[in-house]
Amino acid sequence: MTIGTGRRFPDGFLWGSATASYQIEGAAKEGGRGPSIWDTFSHTPGKTLNGDTGDVADDHYHRWQEDLGHIADLGLGAYRFSTAWPRVQPGGSGPVNREGLDFYSRLVDGLLDRGVKPVLTLYHWDLPQDLEDAGGWANRDTAYRFAEYAELMARELGDRVDTWTTLNEPWCSAYLGYASGAHAPGRADGAAALAAVHHLNLAHGLGVQAIRSVLPSARASITLNLHVIRPVDPSSEADLDAVRRVDALANRAFTGPLLSGAYPADLFDDTAHVTDWSFVRAGDEEIAHQPIDVLGVNYYSTALARRWDGARPRSEDDGHDDALGSPWVGADDVEFVRPEGPYTAMGWNIDPTGMTELLLRIAREYPDQPMMITENGAAFADTVSPDGAVHDPLRIDYIARHLEAVGQAIDQGADVRGYFAWSLLDNFEWSYGYDRRFGLIRVDYDTLVRTWKDSAHWYQGVVARNALPEG
Ligand code: GBH
């Protein structure tokens, strides 16, 4: 079933795998770490599947040396991880927790000792709870606190870090955190979510400025989960307009300020009934618009949208949960429809053509912007064989097809510098807890023992050959 096109990747193509602090570290109350919004959220009954929390997770905080061994054995050229802001500044501002900084300093050194490039993300959703209590990302001040945190990390880890990524998927932080409430802090307030979008964009710009004030030659980046949204009926004006509107919310609300220096006018018009955007002050868009060395692209699946006529019931796959609210602020008349399968265990459709389409769109709109796939991968219902192996041909097939799709985009001119498989390890999959497994390496949550799945062995071969297998 695995496609083996034998495709080779460009010389110097960076092969890696990715994780995030709250999803793997555990040790939530150790080493001087302060509470984050995900501690609060996951400990609130009903917010995560089975009430799972990141208290222990993969216990990476204690097992990091073993995990470095797996990274080295896989032959990875780079490892993408995130630092937990509340480990470094327990209250989100002010005093620094030396123990937290030392943990990341040892991790970075351990990677360099093994010849692995550290690709560091400063914020992968674990906001210090004190900052949320002061308004979180809906509060402009959080962007300035983020810049201080970015600067102190740059001072500490300096030029040992290969790439400094400010934020992971601000779409999720803003819309899942503040509009649908599916993620921490679990608020449901469309105006707050749009303010969060802006303050995240501002935080990125201020963060890049702060990093470069310390390290003028730092390689800076941001990772976005840009959406590939297609119309249910491409000949319907109404459906095309629905796609335009959700494209503004999901994509251009970020690429506009970050890569072009301005929000798109239609975003303001479409959401005028929700907010007047007065939180965007003169000069903010220029701050957000810092040149970045590489754009991180996370890709998993595609979406299908149409205009909802208000009469027929919404499609079951709309994701519009009245208990939760919708992440699509101000677009209540847009309806999402389940795309054709096959699907992963997340219920997301598998469509590698979306990967090629997305990369070519970015290449067309921002021709000089190098890119890197900072996440791609899949959850499936893995089982352990009697011999202890984990045969996961569906994951191998998923990654192979998406790598082939990346290669096709490169052939057509997209400047893609690397690929990071999500994820190195099974881990805390946010509101789905430990129920959904994305790892190349299985984690037994009773013993915390790590076991390479077939996909890990397969990926090791791809990395070694810089090519997909033949046949
Ligand atoms: C990433 O987010 C995260 O960075 C990572 O931490 C996580 O573990 C991994 O992916 C796997 O989930 O109806 O538009 O809401 C994934 C972002 C956002 C992708 C929501 C799928 C669902 C369609 N996801 N999206 S939508």
From TrEMBL:
Pfam families: Glyco_hydro_1 (PF00232). SUPFAM superfamilies: (Trans)glycosidases. The keyword Ribonucleoprotein does not apply. Its EC number is 3.2.1.21. The active site is at E169 (proton donor), E375 (nucleophile). Substrate binds at Q23, H124, N168, Y300, W422, E429, W430. GO terms for biological process: cellulose catabolic process. Keywords: Carbohydrate metabolism, Cellulose degradation, Glycosidase, Hydrolase, Polysaccharide degradation. InterPro entries: GH, GH_1_N_CS, Glyco_hydro_1, Glyco_hydro_1_beta-glucosidase. GO terms for molecular function: beta-glucosidase activity. The keyword Hydrolase applies. GO terms for cellular component: cytosol. It catalyses: Hydrolysis of terminal, non-reducing beta-D-glucosyl residues with release of beta-D-glucose. Belongs to the glycosyl hydrolase 1 family. PANTHER family: GLYCOSYL HYDROLASE, LP05116P. This is Beta-glucosidase. It comes from Jiangella ureilytica. The lineage of its organism: Bacteria, Bacillati, Actinomycetota, Actinomycetes, Jiangellales.
